[in-house]
């Protein structure tokens, strides 16, 4: 509320929804400030995508698309942010089934040991089973190679169900791309993407994501795959988004936000 008369929200979609429901004026406000903290992802061989799912009901389907992209891009890693326990278990099982379809040698090992690898990156149970099965013999090269491939793939998927400020700063410092395909993208994380200079994929535009400038719309499967290719396959469009993000860093700086709020209070905005 401003002066007890206006409700401030973070994006246009929420503004339209609440304006239709309440008589109170609803305006877009900017509660989070940017900071100049450009990341170093363009210097890294690994391409980290931060995917905020936050109770997204389409997460299981979208995950199949990420797996498809991971299959063709060995540098791609995905960190899944703010998943519920149910979502996390579902996606981990989905990932296990995908791995089993890729590595036939996994049928010789217990599902529990495989899940230890996926869930905790704990390789000891499955390595112990490998040694037990081999007995006094040396494990075959095919088994060793298969397990190593499984281990490498598992390290490219990470879950971060809860976020601390330290984790957010660490993730965005290394991320190449931020993806939030929920109905209302999380403004705080969008601001972190701007501060780090990385592009965004969302289902709708907002004050923090302007399609064709610092990100792209991904309203369907084709849009998601196109967006991933745009920002991961080459740095051309990524660099263009970086330039736009630097401009937005200035727009949402603490000084500019103070001016905005002062204008709200005086009625000049």
UniProtKB/TrEMBL annotation:
Protein name: Uncharacterized protein
BP term (GO), one: protein transport
Pfam families assigned: Asp1
Annotated source species: Lactobacillus selangorensis
């Amino acid at each position: 509320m401003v002066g007890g008369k206006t409700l401030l929200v973070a994006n246009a979609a929420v503004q339209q929804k609440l304006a239709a429901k309440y008589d109170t004026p609803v305006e877009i406000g900017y509660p989070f400030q940017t900071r100049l903290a450009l990341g170093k992802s363009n210097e890294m061989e690994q391409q980290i995508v931060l995917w905020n799912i936050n109770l997204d009901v389409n997460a299981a389907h979208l995950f199949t698309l990420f797996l498809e992209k991971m299959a063709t891009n060995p540098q791609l890693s995905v960190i899944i942010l703010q998943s519920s326990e149910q979502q996390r278990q579902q996606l981990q099982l989905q990932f296990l089934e995908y791995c089993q379809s890729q590595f036939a040698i996994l049928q010789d090992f217990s599902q529990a040991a495989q899940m230890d690898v996926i869930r905790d990156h704990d390789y000891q149970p499955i390595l112990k089973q490998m040694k037990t099965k081999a007995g006094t013999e040396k494990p075959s090269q095919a088994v060793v190679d298969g397990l190593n491939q499984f281990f490498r793939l598992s390290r490219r998927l990470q879950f971060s169900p809860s976020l601390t400020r330290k984790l957010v700063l660490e993730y965005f410092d290394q991320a190449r791309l931020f993806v939030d395909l929920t109905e209302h993208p999380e403004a705080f994380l969008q601001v972190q993407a701007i501060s780090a200079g990385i592009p965004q994929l969302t289902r709708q535009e907002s004050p923090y994501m302007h399609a064709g400038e610092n990100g792209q719309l991904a309203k369907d499967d084709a849009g998601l795959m196109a967006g991933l290719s745009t920002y991961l396959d080459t740095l051309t469009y990524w660099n263009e988004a970086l330039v736009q993000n630097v401009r937005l860093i200035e727009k949402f700086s603490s000084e500019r936000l103070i001016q905005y709020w002062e204008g709200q209070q005086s009625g000049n905005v």
